[in-house]
Amino acid sequence: MRVDALPLASEFVEHFAAEGIEELYPPQAAAVEAGVCEGGNVVAAVPTASGKTFVAELALLTADGPGLYVCPLRALAREKFEEFDRLPGVDAGISTGDFDSAAADLAGKDIVVATSEKVDSAIRNGAEWVDDLACVVVDEVHLLGAAGRGPTLEVTLATLRRRAPDVQIVALSATVDNPEDIAEWLDAELVESTWRPVDLRVGVHADGSVRFDDGTDAAVPVDTADPATNPDTEVTAELVRGAVADGGQALAFVRSRREAEALAERLTDERLPSVVDAAGASDSGDGADGPDAADATHERGEDAGMDAAAVAEEIREAGGTETGDRLAEAAAWGVAFHHAGLSSDHRALVERAFRERRLSVICATPTLAAGVNVPARRVVVRDQQRYAGSGYEWLPVLEVHQMCGRAGRPHLDPYGEAVLVAGDEAGRTELWDRYVTADAEAVESKLRDPAALRTHTLALVATGFAASQADVLDAFAGTFYASRTPNPDLGGDVGDAIASLIDDDLLAATGDGGIEATALGEQVSRQYVTPDTGVELLAALRTVATMAPEHVTELTAFEVICDTPDMVDTYLGNAERAEIYQFARSHAAELTTGMTEADDFEGWLESVKTARILTEWVDGASVEELVESYRIGPGDLESRIERAEWLLGAADALAEVLGVEMPALASARAKL
Ligand code: ADP
């Protein structure tokens, strides 16, 4: 099927042709046959890189009105926004920022890109543009199964469909075990395919060889006898070295930030040939050892060195922290690490440089697998387990499949290869059964979680969509949960949620069996904090009202917002514990929780640590100083500052409803 045979204006056909899209990939053709250009609901469960974005564009461009593209990550939202904004004559908008607005400026856009949380919050704040939508595309719809954001996605989609009953829904999913359940929920045609533009083979390394799922074996002997080295790391280094020597790029996944950095350091010792260098050598073909070819290779080699040096320089320019310096040092050898502790600028830089083939290897934590587009020739999954509170647990099959799916760059690689590293033959069998031949998990709703029910019940009532328990149940009838559960008797659970919200003074009974949101409940919903956070904020603000005004400082403001479930926890090491304890004691008069009052003392001490970091930040400490003193990454500081800005705004709005004077909230926020 050809693009010029589709119901698209010629300028779009030309635009796609310029991007190399003229003939549809098989899953794209299947989506067209399923009605994606005719307003039909379609669920496409297809592998990474099989051209889902084009399917989205087809739906959005052929829809009879404005479209919304919902995606989980902000970095991804930006990527897609830029792509849609390049479409000729299309006015695209993006909304990922403030949570307490209706994003009214998005009315009138042809295509809006937003995270599901942002769409949810815009609805809570009265956005009317959602009623006019002709098409909604949901990317990564398998995240329905994620705690927290999954329920938000399903309730938001149910609400959108209630408000705009004719809206076309196109949902894009990774290959999961039950895409038919998602299709059934959305009354959609299912397009399911394992087709990929580049062949992928997946294998497991043990005892000096990789056994692949296409029946082949490859000898990759590694000397793992040296007790001073980690055998899995040595195997990983060898697999990476082989891919790069062959002109490819590699992604190596390990379990933690520290491991990612350590592996990057180990790989710089390899003195890998740079990607450009190796590509030069293989471009020159069989005559590679002739004098001309050698010259060409030599020149490219120099370019490669310069390129790596340029990446290192860009990294240094993007922020001088100790982590940044280490990243730059590794990048000079074509190697990078990538994890949530890196600043977002550094993360974006690493991703881009890798896509531009200016880096040979990224050593990453599993988060990269679900993130932006960074395909590689070879993917090595060194660790298949991750530390989870009390011990190691296996990564979900879906996550490992997504890592493996990163292998193979269209037009650049003849094939993609993913290798899981096992310690021995028994490990090989285990990994083979667990990941190579196994299907990804089924997607299951998490809506029944009491915290999720409280959040969405309050939102439905506060926005006026529900004025009774029956109305709430009616709204939930359109969710994935209800469609998946034969007798989705949520009555008892929703009743419990309503009773607890009334106890918390966020909802009130109206006497005639109805319910309404209190002024506090309405504000909690608008500010987009969870009811649990709302309750914590209100309790702390009531304490503030009893404190002497001179004791209510910016530290108080930060403690108020940090001791809530919506702030991210900050790890408190044993060595720091005593110091933070001393800090809390010496500032006891400024804190809303007394030293003996905290229900969860450890958790509270952690929030005091976060509050202290944020106080030093607004007092002018540099990223570098804070990273150094508190052993957090620049990315950790960024995420806490961002949340603090949101939560201080929420606390300020709630203080106003309560009639509590707390100028420190606004002053701290202004300085962030
Ligand atoms: P994903 O399915 O992971 O979202 P993308 O939509 O990003 O994949 O597509 C991956 C790459 O394939 C992009 O570079 C895109 O331009 C290219 N592509 C998509 N469809 C086609 C096509 N029909 N012909 C050629 N290239 C295509």
What does this structure look like?
This protein has 672 residues and is an alpha/beta fold. It has four domains: 190 residues, Rossmann fold; 237 residues, P-loop containing nucleotide triphosphate hydrolases (Rossmann fold); 77 residues, Arc Repressor Mutant, subunit A (Orthogonal Bundle), CATH 1.10.10.10; 141 residues, Orthogonal Bundle (Sec63 N-terminal domain-like fold), CATH 1.10.3380.30. Helix content is 48%, strand content 12%. It is built from 28 helices and 19 strands. Strands 10-9-8-17-14-11-13-12 form an eight-stranded mixed β-sheet, with helices on both faces. The longest helix is centred in the middle third of the chain and has 27 residues. The radius of gyration is 27 Å and the shape is globular. 50% of the residues are buried. Adenosine-5'-diphosphate (ADP) binds next to helix 3. The site of adenosine-5'-diphosphate has 16 residues, from helix 3. Keywords: ATP-binding, DNA damage, DNA repair, DNA-binding, Helicase, Hydrolase, Isomerase, Nucleotide-binding. This is ATP-dependent DNA helicase Hel308.
